[in-house]
Amino acid sequence: MARRTESRHAGAAYGAPAAGMDRTRRLVIVANRVPNPRERGASAGGLAVALQEAISGREAMWFGWSGQITETTATTPRLTRHRRLTYATLDLGAEDYRRYYQGFANASLWPMLHYRLGITQFDREDYAGYRAVNAAFAAALAPLLRPDDTIWVHDFHLFPLGGKLRRLGGAAGARRRIGFFLHVPFPPRSVFLALPRADELLADLAAYDVIGVQTEEDAAHLRDALRRAGHAAAARRVGAWPAGIDAEGFAAMAERAARGPEAARLRASLVGRALVIGVDRLDYTKGLPHRFIGYGRLLAGFDGRHLGDVTYLQFAPVSRSEVAQYRALRRELDELTGRINGQYAEFDWVPLRYITRAVARTTLAGFMRIARVGLVTPLRDGMNLVAKEYVAAQNPEDPGVLVLSQFAGAAGDLKGALVVNPLDPDEIAEALDRALSMPTAERIARWRQMMEAVRTNDAAAWSRGFLATLEGGSASALAAEHGGKAA
Ligand code: ADP
Ligand code: F6P
Fold it and tell me: According to CATH, where is 3.40.50.2000 located in the chain?
């Protein structure tokens, strides 16, 4: 078959001592997504963005799916070296891709973890495929490991991986430091348990030495689920580390890009109108239909004062397009865009510009700096790095305003945002109206608070905090936490 490409409060509740991370050990990152070595920093997806910082200046290996789909899942990884980082990637067989990625990961776990039980599906064969791919990843990774590697597994695709690695490694495997970080929310126990086999997934998580989540709310939910499933020791190994971005790097990139040719073209096209920007994968958790409707209400209401005065630019790169819910969302957004533009456009003004492609990170940064408003309204989101990127991109003397969902993990930190309930289009419209007319002094005061938080909880603080706990906790403390299993 032809190939297709498709802090501050960090870890506060964790019991083990955090003596500091050990940069002499090799860091092995295991994640379904592996960025393309030739496109550093260009991926659409928060996981890859957050992790770039963790590996910088340290010997590391990044293991995961190649992004290629072939006849059968590969057993030997393809190795590519880029300075001190080795990429080790496996092609996925078409059936495994369908069952593991499209099926259990994205049609079962993703909606459930985002509190969407109504669209959560379950299929036993998908689940078996998910476990089989985790076993195949573990088997392909094990021979590449050195005894003192630190292993950091990421996200909901790979819950079972740590346990499988331990079993393959015998006594040495049992003693390995293996950490896990969940980039998406962890819902209340009653929601989690609605998914068949949820108890097995909790047992999978209990195999890790440190289990990281984005917020204290997620941590409380996960601890409760683990404790009540009989994994009290594992519950004590849960901590919250809010993921961040390279704040200074993104700010510098935005400043440069705002002086570049693409920013100039965008500015010229606005002919003085205020810009509202949205940047999200095309995903139903991002609240895009409600957001579009809210923008329509902004145009329709407020005595018509925004008609012809504002332009909303939404980037929404197509994501997981073989999953039915994502295809349906795309149709819905195509229709809403057509309706809003059809109703309000003038021959020289298109109120909503909607682009379903990924664009270069530097272009995005420059556009964010030009935008008077950053519109980030997910229905539920682990953290949402776009909110932090928008803040970092601003001109300190004339910053824009962030309109942010109360259900994004980032809302915990970004108190200077105009916080909205993303299910209420009228509230979105009111926040937009307020943002568009906010005086400079208020914009600066709000932005300063947010920028301080984005700087403090940046990507380096996130990975340092997690790894300090994983690598700094003494082996005996971790073993004791495992109920003696690792001794
Ligand atoms: P998620 O992990 O659910 O995708 P995040 O907001 O945490 O959500 O991260 C999304 C990342 O993907 C951000 O770094 C953002 O800049 C990037 N991104 C989103 N849309 C695009 C796009 N159209 N082009 C390039 N990068 C994008
Ligand atoms: O951040 C959440 C996440 O699901 C990551 O695990 C993932 O890499 C990213 O969103 C993009 O999704 P996908 O890898 O399915 O394209």
Answer: 2-244+459-475, 247-456
Which ligand sits closest to the CA of 100?
2
Bridge partners of 178?
151
* Ligand 2 atom at minimum distance from 44 CA: 11
Residues of 150-169 as b/e, b for ≥16 C-beta within 10 angstroms? Answer: bbbbbbbbbbbbbbbbbebb
Find out whether the beta carbon of 286 lies less than 6 Å from any atom of ligand 2. Answer: no
Which residues, listed in sequence order, are joined to residue 310 by a DSSP beta bridge? Answer: 274
* Catalytic center residues: 183, 381
184 within ligand 2 shell (Cβ under 6 A): yes
Angle, to 10 degrees, between the axis of helix 161-168 and the axis of helix 124-141? Answer: 50
Pocket of ligand 1 (CB under 6 A): 44-47, 49, 279-281, 315, 317, 358-359, 364, 383-386, 389
- Residues with Cβ < 8 Å from 447, sequence gap 6 or more? 391, 394, 396, 399, 400, 416
Mutual orientation of helices 324-344 and 288-300 as an angle, nearest 10°?
10
On whether the CB atoms of residues 1 and 71 are closer than 8 A, the answer is yes
Q: What's the CATH code, domain 2-244+459-475?
A: 3.40.50.2000
Give me Rg for the CA atoms of the chain. 22
Nearest ligand to residue 97 Cα: 2
Model confidence, pTM: 0.93
CATH number of 247-456: 3.40.50.2000
DSSP string, 116-151: -GGG----HHHHHHHHHHHHHHHHHHGGG--TT-EE
Q: Is the Cβ–Cβ distance between 94 and 1 less than 8 Å?
A: yes
For residue range 134-193, list pLDDT tens digits in order.
999 999 999 999 988 999 999 999 999 999 999 997 777 778 899 999 999 999 999 999
d(CA 365, CA 274): 17
The SS3 call for residue 36 is coil
157 vs 134: CA distance, rounded Å: 8
pLDDT tens for 11-33 read: 444 434 345 677 778 999 999 99
Cα–Cα distance, 469 to 256 (Å, whole number): 36
CA 152 / ligand 1 centre spacing (Å): 22
Strands 150-154 and 27-33: parallel
Q: Is 153 helix (H, G, I), strand (E, B) or coil?
A: strand
Instruction: Return the axis-axis angle of helices 247-257 and 361-370, rounded to nearest 10°.
Output: 80
> Which backbone phi and psi does 79 adopt, to 5 degrees?
-105, 130
Q: What is the CB neighbour count within 10 angstroms for residue 113?
A: 24
Measured from the Cβ of residue 115, the count of other Cβ atoms closer than 10 Å reads: 17
Residue nearest to atom 14 of ligand 2 (CA): 33
